[in-house]
Amino acid sequence: MTLNSYEQEQARKKAYYEFAQEQVKLSNLRRAVAYYVSRKNRTEHPDGKLKGRPGKWYPHPKEEHRSCCDYIKPPSHACPYSLMNHCRSAKHIGNLLEVDPKEIKRLARIEINKEEERR
Question: Are 92 and 86 a contacting pair, CB within 8 Å?
């Protein structure tokens, strides 16, 4: 293998790796948009449980809870679903799937418009 063909092979491997990384990002973005739209429409719900007598909702500690949840007001008697509402947000889903929340919202608007046109 000559030096030139070695460099070409390395460049081809690098291009393939970058392509594969881009496909993974697109796949995560598609999943994030699907989660966001279904949670917004309430056809899918975040993983979590109602705890306590008044039924305060908390996200599942391993599956659903992320660092963004720490900054949300904890559930109280007056607002028992504060964390559930947060878990339906683009910010939370972005943290869940490591995707930019702005991209989720942008693509979700397009998806929702497509659904409305079909009706």
Answer: yes
Other CB atoms within a 10 A radius of the CB of residue 39 amount to 19
Q: What tokens appear for 53 in the block?
A: 């007598």
What CA–CA distance (Å, rounded) separates 47 from 89?
14
Tally of domains within the chain: 1
**Measured in Å, how far apart are the chain's first and last C-alpha atoms?**
60
Q: Which residues pair with 5 in a beta bridge?
A: none
Note the pLDDT of residue 88.
Answer: 96
Q: Kindly report whether the global pTM for this prediction surpasses the value 0.70.
A: yes
The whole domain housing 37 covers 3-118
What is the DSSP annotation of 80-116? TTHHHHHHTSHHHHHHHHT--HHHHHHHHHHHHHHHH
